[in-house]
Write a structure and sequence with these properties.
Elements (H helix, E strand, L loop, with lengths): L3 H9 L1 H22 L9 H5 L2 H15 L8 H14 L5 H17 L5 H31 L7 E11 L4 E8 L13 E6 L10 E6 L9 E6 L11 H9 L5 E8 L12 E6 L3 H14 L5 E7 L8 H10 L3 E7 L10 E2 L4 H7 L5 E5 L2 H13 L7 E4 L8
Parallel strand pairs: 7-8, 7-11, 8-9, 9-10, 11-12
Antiparallel strand pairs: 1-2, 1-6, 2-5, 3-4, 3-6
Helix pairs in contact: 1-7, 2-4, 2-6, 5-7, 6-7
Family: Belongs to the globin family. Two-domain flavohemoproteins subfamily. In the C-terminal section; belongs to the flavoprotein pyridine nucleotide cytochrome reductase family.
GO molecular function: nitric oxide dioxygenase NAD(P)H activity
EC number: 1.14.12.17
């Protein structure tokens, strides 16, 4: 337990973290990779360049400081981050390295304002927070390893099938190279892929999380990957282009066991609305197929938004499910359709249209690009949908809407 004096010191730094948090965490990552370049094998380099990871860490540090006297309040966040740490194979021995560099970054950024008392208080607080993460993640490692068909760390999987779903999305069907069983998962979870692309000028491995896009219980995992092409001010996605252009049927990928906290609440029986934008449909497909299989009487509405039909993955599959299941309704929104007869709405999803095609008493799940999710979230809040019935997932480091 932290003393009252230590807690008071940590609390006093909250305003400073609000101002300098991202500078501290950006400095932290620079120091971390300078002293331990091997950790570049774990972290997403693109998220570092774009500032997403430093911002996510800054938010987490700020939350920890603000709730230091009631850390149980942020336990859900600890568990969510713990899921990603387990998927990345973060180990207890990594935490002292992180702590040393985080304290070093605080001292470097704040200078003389980082008094010995403040640094000592943060060292104590970090130790307690690290112990909480290590404890939570130990349970997660054990659960993943002991599950039927489960394993620990990365396991080789063979690409059994590679199927083009749209102009930019391709599905990969993965089976374990050892021919053994694979663990099941909850609809909405992801697997973690580790590769060393031959188009990479560096020698590091690269790790990415990809949502599972099929109903649980099959003898394979399916991921549906969007190829991230180069755009003004943004390079092409190293891993996604490698998977699309260089990985073929019969090739082997290293996979970590399913993880993730964005999952469908199957205890609910109220109407369900699944809203996706672009490749955000991947966890939604898994949720949809699961509901149709396990809750066939449940009313479900599936809404997908894309630029146009060329970017729309699995359209025929959704139409077939819609035809075969009476309680299901599906709608398509295209920003710039090539054929207007192929969509139900032109432009963007908005509140008046949502009110036409869905019930206010529904449970809402959505996923897609951040601007898309922000618009959907704002529409649902304007409709006075209770927070407990609004669920969403960020691809990458957690952000805010």
């Amino acid at each position: 337990m932290l003393s009252k004096e230590t807690i008071d010191i940590i609390k006093s730094t909250v305003p400073v973290l609000e101002i300098h948090g991202k500078t501290i965490t950006t400095t932290f990552y620079q120091m971390l990779f300078d002293s331990h370049p091997e950790l570049l094998n774990i972290f997403n380099h693109a998220n570092q360049r774009e500032g997403k990871q430093p911002q996510a860490l800054a938010n987490a540090v700020y939350a920890a400081a603000a709730h230091i006297d009631h850390l149980e309040d942020i336990l859900p966040v600890v568990k969510q981050i713990g899921q990603k740490h387990r998927a990345l194979n973060i180990l207890p021995e990594h935490y002292p390295i992180v702590g040393e560099n985080l304290l070093g970054a605080i001292k470097k950024v704040l200078g003389d304002a980082a008094t010995p008392e403040i640094l000592d208080a943060w060292a104590q607080a970090y130790g307690m927070i690290a112990d909480a993460f290590i404890s939570v993640e130990a349970e997660m490692y054990q659960e993943a390893e002991n599950a039927p068909g489960g394993w620990r760390g990365f396991r080789p999987f063979v690409v059994e099938r590679k199927i083009k779903e749209s102009d930019v999305i391709t599905s990969f069907y993965l089976k374990p190279q050892d021919g053994g069983a694979i663990s099941s998962y909850l609809p909405g979870q992801y697997i973690t892929v580790r590769v060393q692309p031959d188009n990479d000028n560096e020698s590091y491995t690269h790790i990415r999380h990809y949502s599972l896009s099929a109903v649980p219980g099959e003898d394979y995992y399916r991921i549906s990957v969007k190829r991230e092409d180069a755009a003004p001010g943004k390079p092409a996605g190293l891993v996604s282009t490698y998977l699309h252009n260089s990985v073929n049927e019969g090739d082997v990928l290293e996979i970590n066991a399913p993880a993730g906290s964005f999952t469908l609440d199957q205890e609910q029986n109220i109407p369900l609305v699944l809203i996706s934008g672009g490749v955000g449909l991947t966890p939604m497909i898994s949720m949809l197929e699961t509901v149709l299989k396990e809750q066939p009487e449940r009313e479900v509405t599936f809404i997908h938004a894309a630029i146009n039909e060329g970017f729309h993955a699995m359209r025929e599959h959704i139409e077939q499910l819609d035809t075969a299941h009476q309680p299901m309704k599906s709608y398509v929104c295209y920003e710039k359709p090539l054929d207007q007869s192929l969509c139900h709405k032109i432009g963007y999803i908005d509140l008046p249209w949502l009110q036409e095609v869905t019930s206010k008493e529904s449970d809402f799940y959505f996923c897609g690009p951040v601007p898309f999710m922000r618009a959907v979230n704002q529409a649902l809040q304007a409709w006075d949908i209770p927070a407990e019935r609004i669920h969403y997932e960020f691809f990458g480091p957690a952000g805010s809407l």
